[in-house]
Design a protein that fits this description.
Elements lengths: L4 H16 L12 E4 L1 H4 L5 H13 L9 E3 L5 E4 L5 E3 L6 H10 L3 E6 L16 H11 L3 E5 L3 H9 L4 H22 L4 E5 L6 H4 L9 E3 L8 H9 L13 E3 L12 H13 L4 E3 L8 H7 L2 H7 L8 E6 L2 E7 L5 E7 L10 E2 L11 E5 L5 E4 L4 E2 L6 E6 L4
Parallel strand pairs: 1-2, 1-10, 2-5, 5-6, 6-7, 7-8, 8-9
Antiparallel strand pairs: 3-4, 11-12, 12-13, 13-18, 14-17, 15-16, 15-18
Helix pairs in contact: 3-4, 5-7, 6-7, 9-10, 10-11, 10-12
């Protein structure tokens, strides 16, 4: 008997859940929240930078809003000793002490490596040392691993299967399976984040029992530019069925507060990631962020959309020119509605008009505007003026 792809996916999820039940508290029941060093510090990150980020998560109130992972990206690695054990470089004198410091703040520590011999920035990778590295990370007290494909592409995939792209993909999947096996054997619950840019429909194989991914990149890298953010968000259409508690689509880290993004673009970016049930990993300089940026990242009403226990990812309901409307089902029958203006401003002269029937709604809806904090009533054909690259995000607790 042939099973449909969706039935096979459901069976895979069941097996993955059975595997994760080995730990008392399954990781990533909701999308992971925290901070990652790469978007601001890149490969120059230091122990002091990580400690400052941990401190800022506490003092800003972000930890209490759910941001608990402090993730060191590329650039921490030193060399291996005679026994093959990885050691951090001089910028990280004592990784166990750093983990202890982060944990003392009520936070969790994340780390980064590659299945190849080198990382993207040219530091030591994990090829041939997967089990050894997993044990080392567990001993340090690591709670999250980002596993970035990088040099594995040239060193392994193209070298071992130069004219066979399908075999290259199989080698890639095997590499991610090896590290999952190593993490399980290390005996510490560690969030497993696959970073391989969405190749080979990763959402179909990453969350299963063999690979054990808790989140997987569905796209290439993000940059702090509106067009790139919009492109990555758009690529999530059609992937909602693959997301759920313990396994999440990942359109990359947040750029809120970076580059030349406007306040409207920061709001829209954050709203879109929340609607997508995406991991919320801030990538800005937390220790020096403006109040405006802190207020966006700390908006608990928007965070609640991202962290909704139902774990359903938003879908695009419809678009009219440069305005897109996305909806997300929430726990207890509630609904989130996001109206994104991805183009030029819509003024009162020619506003966008909401079509409630396209959202499956009938009659006036009572909700809350999550950026103004005020009650709002939605009616069919309601005129909505939206600024350039801005968003209206509404929660309706009793849609009808």
């Amino acid at each position: 008997m042939r099973l449909s792809r969706h039935v096979l996916f459901a069976l895979t999820m069941a097996l993955g859940s059975a595997c994760s039940s080995a730990f008392a508290d399954p990781v990533a029941a909701t999308p992971p929240m925290g901070w990652n060093s790469w978007n601001f510090f890149a490969e120059k990150v230091t122990d002091a930078d990580v400690r400052a980020a941990a401190d800022a998560l506490v003092t800003s109130g972000m930890r209490d809003a759910g941001y608990v992972y402090v993730n060191i990206d590329d650039g921490w690695q030193g060399e291996r000793d005679a026994k093959g054990v990885i050691h951090p470089n001089a910028r990280f004198p004592d990784m166990k002490a750093l983990a202890d410091y982060v944990h003392s703040k009520g936070l969790k520590l994340g780390i980064y490596t590659s299945p190849g011999p080198k990382t993207c920035a040219g530091f030591t990778g994990s090829l041939g040392h997967e089990a050894q590295d997993a044990k080392t990370y567990a001993a340090w007290g690591v709670d999250y691993l980002k596993y970035d494909l990088c040099s594995f592409i040239e060193d392994q995939m193209k070298t071992k299967a130069p004219n066979d792209p399908a075999q290259q993909m199989r080698l890639m999947v095997d590499a991610y399976e090896r590290m999952h096996t190593a993490l399980v054997a290390a005996g510490r619950p560690i969030v497993y984040s696959l970073c391989q840019y969405g190749w080979d429909a990763v959402w179909e194989w990453a969350p299963g029992a063999k690979v054990g991914g808790n989140l997987w990149r569905t796209t290439g890298d993000i940059t702090p530019e509106w067009d790139r953010i919009y492109a990555l968000a758009s690529q999530q259409a059609g992937l909602a069925s693959y997301a759920g508690p313990g396994h999440w689509n990942d359109p990359d880290m947040l750029e809120v507060g970076n580059g030349k993004l406007t306040a409207a673009e920061n709001r829209a970016h954050f709203s879109w990631w929340a609607m997508l049930a995406a991991p919320l990993l801030a990538g800005n300089d937390l220790a020096h962020m403006p109040v405006e940026v802190k207020n966006i990242l700390g908006n608990r009403d928007v965070i609640a959309i991202d962290q909704d226990p139902l774990g359903k990812q938003a879908t695009r309901a419809y678009a009219e020119g440069e305005v897109e409307v996305w909806t997300r089902p929430l726990q207890n029958g509630a609904m989130a509605i996001a109206i994104f203006n991805v183009g030029s401003a819509r003024y009162d002269t020619h506003p966008f008009r909401l079509n409630l029937s396209k959202l499956g709604l009938h009659g006036p809806q009572q909700g809350k505007d999550l950026w103004s904090g005020k009650p709002i009533s939605l009616a069919d054909k309601q005129a909505i003026a939206l600024a350039h690259h801005d968003v209206m995000l509404i929660r309706v607790d009793a849609p009808r």
